[in-house]
Amino acid sequence: MIHHNIKIDLPFDDQNYLMVEYPDYFYPVQNKKAKVKDLGKKFAAINSFFYDYLKEYHIPCAYLKNHNERSLVYINFEQLHFSIKILNTADKRTAKIFSIKEGVNLELPIYEYHYGSSKGSLVSASHLIAFDICTYEDLKLINRICSKVNAVLKAFFDRRGEIVAEVTCSFGKSKNKIYLIDDFSPISLKIFPNGNVDKWTNPYLLKTSGNMRKYTDFLFNITSS
């Protein structure tokens, strides 16, 4: 998600930091922009809340502080060019492969590595290591961080009667240390109620400005209460 946001150049004496601005638009399909009022403000607030919350559990996050209502300041990092999708429920692809019902809770989470954002982006750990995208030791650490992030988020939403169906994590390096850099926006955080879903905004179907606004407001309200 961070590559869809706006990285802002800082003065020379602040080059140890990176400022990211969250805009008032998203991409429901590739190269098609859709605007939503105050989306950037709410994305920034949701992300800063969860970064601060995860830091309480000693999870290394590159986020440092809010710059303003739509911009966050991070440690200056070099982004690793893959993401980890954590599935706690069966998505469409998994359900089809293993002949199970889509959306069913999984006894253990599935960790998928994605190189890029296309439908064919799924790769293995061996790909990442063989092509020098990530070292074996860094990947071990990243997997441990993902496991902890997932456990913390599941407990947070479980107390509110909701299920973390999916969360996608991205990472960066700064001074040879691994940091979580992305992302707790509606793009990557898929939450479902533990029960009736009739009036729920499906987070997998955020194809209109209206649906994005409703689901973003749900996350924003949780983090603002």
Structural account:
This protein is α+β, with helices and mostly antiparallel strands and about 220 residues long. The protein has 2 domains: about 70 residues, Phosphorylase Kinase, domain 1, CATH 3.30.200.20; about 130 residues, ATP-grasp fold, B domain (D-amino Acid Aminotransferase, Chain A, domain 1, 2-Layer Sandwich). It is about 30% helix and about 35% strand. The protein contains 5 helices and 12 strands. Strands 7, 8, 9, 10, 11 and 12 form a 6-stranded antiparallel beta sheet that branches. The protein has a 4-stranded antiparallel beta sheet with strand order 1-2-6-5, with helices on one face. The protein has a two-stranded antiparallel sheet with strand order 3-4. β3 and β4 form a beta hairpin. The longest helix is centred in the middle third of the chain and has 23 residues. The radius of gyration is 17 Å and the shape is globular. The mean pLDDT is about 90.
List keywords for this structure.
D-amino Acid Aminotransferase, Chain A, domain 1; alpha+beta; six-stranded antiparallel sheet; 225 residues; Phosphorylase Kinase, domain 1
* Percentage of β-strand residues: 25-35%
CATH class of the largest domain: Alpha Beta
CATH homologous group name of the largest domain: ATP-grasp fold, B domain
CATH topology of the largest domain: D-amino Acid Aminotransferase, Chain A, domain 1
User: What's the total count of β strands?
Assistant: 12
Structural class: alpha+beta
Which range best describes the helical content: under 10%, 10-25%, 25-40%, 40-55%, 55-70% or over 70%?
25-40%
Main beta sheet: 6 strands, antiparallel
Can you give the mean pLDDT? Answer: 90
Radius of gyration of CA atoms, rounded to a whole number: 17 Å
CATH architecture of the largest domain: 2-Layer Sandwich
N- and C-termini, Cα separation: 25 Å
- Total helices: the number is 5
Query: What does the overall shape look like?
Result: globular
